[in-house]
């Protein structure tokens, strides 16, 4: 036993030594740090910009973010990875695109513990980053606090509704009723039974109600005969009740509805997955997701997923990053674009004339010629 | 080491009694954790190197951030505080021959209990803080007692029950924080913030919760070596039959140890709520109880040693974000290092356990690790 321990110790020391010595030969500390930067970024500004563009217009790294000609953009994820196929990833892609177009350097930190929000933001602020993007409404409080603590840094809060506008903080929000209207319009055109349903998070949360009311308005605009059921979860646990979402979706299918708009975190996902289990999924019954392209986030629902009422986070974030870099950022709420996600597996189930009509409606929503009836609909 | 050496128990900690413990077990008590940590860092270093970063530079960044500034030190102490307490919780169990895997669940219940006591009452700080901490401890103790009763009086393995009670605790606190105890008029699952009078203050850069955790670790070191009850815990842990023969109420002792263990984990949750988070939110306390297992095994069930073990884990955890910021290494490398550490620390214990079981040609499914 003595010898074994001793041997283990020797092996350990040897391992430490070999791993260290070999790596010091490989790379000196500083360049190693910069090189690794490019690795985790899929379409990284750093990796592409480095050889292609002249250094004068592009900030290469964050060694001197304080210099006025260098622009540095940092992103702090909500708990989760930067490739989560959801909010974090969309915000990071938008940040990279924005940074690329203004010649800025961009970098992210992935939050592993919600208690670290403030500290992770401070990492960027401490290095004199010019713009810090924070993702998700759970980070809203931390972002407001950080904006007060670092008045010289511009903050972009993705999906964070702003109460009192703060000079150096722009919230990226969306008019959910437009996205809801678009998917409602699609559902109104496609329904064979003239009955469409929904399983939604609580109507006490305005964005959810905007999705729902927009859905109803869009469906009726497409098809005055359609019967739209708007079903909201009670406020408690509104976004964490997949069983409720599944049960309500099932019930409405049994009552003859053939398209279900299922929106509201885990609650909505439960509804989507339930619809996908129906034997007619993808041929006679369909589901519609929300927020981001749920084809990626809820693959179990791919079979029935017509599309998703989408907040265009990528372009919304990109626009705000560019505005912040150019000094034209507007404090308070900034409305980003909305739309619908790709049809994916249900592409064949949507006739071409329907697709064309939906595109026209999307354009009308964008230029304001179509009124969703919201936000006045919140008083319904 | 021969299996009959009385200085060495199943659980791999060293008998503090110098009459029986020779010099070697003491050396081993230090050597195994140190070698395990070094090995884990070496393998972690290889992983870092494979990502194109010099491991020495990465580790320097990790530790420099944590220990190189007063904010960093504050954060390390903040992170370590609940870890010392959950480490102690697991330690008390190990010393009594119980493997409490349920520290996470007990911590959650304690954190929520302290939050409730913190926001629901208006009291002077001198009363409010101790009240909220004790309430959190009672919640944790009550939760652990379920497993304690089952173990002591029905011989149900506490390993199984505490794991399962973790799942129940997660669902329970989720339910409570999303319904009866939820902060109204907002969509997030969380309780209202605690009253200011319940908040644990910082003394300069030292959080008072950290001082409490240190004091508790010192107390339990004394308790286990210098009190009758501590002696009963140790004796039951080493040999329940002998303890029974010596007139120690084994069942009562096991139940009590489980309750104390749960109280410590609950205290970890309470101190976290009152000192750091200021309210209960289910996502806030992820992993603290499980890190406690790593810490207790790394400390080889020595209460004082949980302090450096928790500081090591706290340092790694608080430096992870900087590591990614400076080098691009994903913060999960810290989890890899901790998991490897646990593996190396636990390996000798597990192998000894297996050997012993084999040697004695006896298995007892109903008893825990340290059981008869």
Structural class of chain B: mainly alpha
Task: Write down the secondary-structure element order of chain B.
Answer: HHHHHHEEHHHHHHH
Mean pLDDT metric of chain A: 86
Helix content of chain B: over 70%
Q: Going by CATH, what is the homologous superfamily of the largest domain in chain A? A: Response regulator
Reading off the top of the CATH hierarchy, the class of chain B is best stated as Mainly Alpha
- Which ranges of chain A are low-confidence, i.e. pLDDT below 50, for 5 or more consecutive residues? 1-56
The CATH level-2 architecture of chain B is identified as Orthogonal Bundle
Record the strand order, biggest sheet of chain B: 1-2
Q: In DSSP terms, counting alpha (H) and pi (I) runs of 4 or more, how many helices of chain B?
A: 13
- The end-to-end span of chain A amounts to 77 Å
- The level of helicity of chain A is 40-55%
Estimate what percentage of residues of chain B fall within beta strands. under 5%
Low-confidence stretches of chain B are 1-10, 361-372
Give the overall shape of chain A. Answer: elongated
Q: pLDDT average of chain B, as an integer? A: 88
Class of secondary structure makeup of chain A: alpha/beta
Number of domains of chain B: 1
CATH architecture of the largest domain in chain A: 3-Layer(aba) Sandwich
Envelope shape of chain B:
globular
Number of helices of chain A: 13
């Amino acid at each position: 036993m003595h010898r074994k321990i001793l041997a283990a110790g020797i092996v350990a020391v040897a391992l430490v030594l070999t791993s260290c010595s070999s790596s010091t030969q490989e790379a000196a500390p500083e360049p190693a740090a910069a090189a690794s930067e490019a690795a985790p970024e899929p379409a990284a500004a750093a990796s592409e910009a480095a050889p292609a563009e002249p250094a004068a217009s592009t900030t290469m790294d964050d060694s001197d973010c304080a210099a006025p000609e260098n622009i540095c953009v940092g992103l702090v994820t909500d708990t989760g990875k930067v490739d989560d196929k959801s909010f974090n990833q969309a915000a990071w892609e938008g940040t990279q695109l924005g940074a690329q177009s203004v010649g800025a350097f961009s970098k992210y930190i992935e939050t592993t513990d919600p208690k670290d929000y403030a500290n992770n933001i401070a990492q960027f602020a401490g290095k004199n980053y010019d713009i810090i993007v924070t993702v998700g409404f759970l980070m809203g409080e931390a972002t407001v606090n950080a904006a007060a603590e670092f008045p010289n840094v511009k903050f972009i809060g993705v999906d964070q509704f702003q109460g009192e506008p703060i000079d150096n903080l722009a919230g990226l929000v969306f008019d959910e009723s437009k996205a809801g209207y678009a998917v409602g319009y699609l559902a109104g055109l496609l329904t064979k039974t003239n009955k469409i349903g929904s399983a939604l998070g609580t109507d006490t949360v305005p964005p959810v109600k905007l999705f729902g009311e927009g859905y109803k308005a869009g469906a009726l605009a497409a098809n005055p005969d359609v019967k739209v059921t708007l079903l909201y979860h009670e406020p408690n646990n509104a976004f964490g009740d997949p069983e409720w979402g599944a049960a309500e979706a099932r019930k409405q299918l049994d009552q003859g509805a053939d398209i279900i708009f299922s929106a509201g975190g885990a609650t909505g996902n439960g509804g989507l997955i339930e619809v996908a289990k129906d034997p007619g999924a993808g041929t006679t019954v369909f589901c519609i997701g929300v927020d981001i392209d749920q084809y990626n986030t809820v693959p179990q629902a791919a079979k029935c997923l017509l599309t998703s009422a989408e907040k265009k986070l990528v372009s919304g974030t990109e626009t705000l990053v560019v505005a912040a870099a150019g000094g034209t950022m507007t404090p308070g709420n900034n409305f980003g674009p909305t739309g619908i996600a790709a049809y994916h597996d249900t592409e064949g189930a949507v006739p071409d004339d329907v697709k064309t009509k939906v595109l026209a409606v999307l354009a009308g929503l964008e230029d304001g010629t179509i009124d969703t009836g919201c936000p006045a609909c919140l008083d319904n | 080491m021969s299996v009959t050496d009385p200085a060495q128990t199943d659980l791999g900690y060293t008998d503090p009694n110098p009459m029986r413990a020779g010099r070697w077990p003491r050396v081993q008590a230090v050597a195994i954790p140190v070698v395990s940590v070094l090995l884990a860092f070496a393998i972690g270093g290889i992983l870092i190197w494979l990502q194109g970063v010099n491991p020495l530079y990465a580790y320097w960044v990790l530790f420099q951030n944590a220990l190189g500034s007063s904010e960093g030190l504050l954060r390390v102490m903040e992170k370590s505080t609940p870890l010392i307490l959950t480490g102690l919780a697991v330690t008390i169990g190990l010393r009594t021959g119980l493997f409490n895997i349920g520290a996470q669940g007990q911590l959650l219940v304690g954190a929520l209990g302290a939050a409730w006591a913190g926001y629901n009452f208006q009291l002077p700080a001198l009363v409010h803080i101790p009240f909220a901490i004790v309430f959190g401890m009672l919640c944790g103790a009550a939760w652990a007692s379920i497993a304690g009763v089952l173990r002591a009086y029905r011989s149900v393995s506490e390993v199984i029950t505490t794991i399962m009670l973790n799942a129940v605790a997660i669902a329970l606190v989720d339910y409570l924080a999303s319904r009866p105890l939820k902060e109204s008029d907002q969509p997030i699952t969380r309780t209202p913030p605690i009253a200011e009078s319940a908040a644990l203050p910082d003394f300069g850069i030292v959080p008072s919760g950290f001082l409490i955790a240190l004091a508790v670790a010192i107390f339990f070191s004394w308790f286990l070596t210098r009190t009758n009850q501590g002696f009963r815990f140790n004796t039951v842990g080493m040999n329940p039959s002998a303890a029974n023969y010596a007139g120690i109420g084994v069942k009562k002792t096991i139940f009590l140890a489980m309750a104390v263990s749960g109280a410590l984990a609950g205290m970890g949750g309470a101190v976290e709520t009152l000192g750091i988070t200021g309210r209960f939110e289910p996502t806030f306390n992820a992993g603290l109880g499980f890190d406690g297992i790593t810490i207790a095994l790394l400390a080889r069930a020595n209460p004082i040693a949980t302090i450096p073990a928790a500081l090591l884990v706290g340092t790694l955890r608080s430096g992870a974000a900087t590591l990614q910021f400076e080098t691009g290494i994903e913060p999960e490398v810290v989890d890899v290092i901790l998991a490897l550490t646990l593996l190396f620390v636990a390996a000798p214990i597990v192998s000894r356990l297996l050997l012993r079981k084999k040697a004695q040609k006896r298995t007892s499914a109903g008893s825990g690790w340290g059981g008869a």
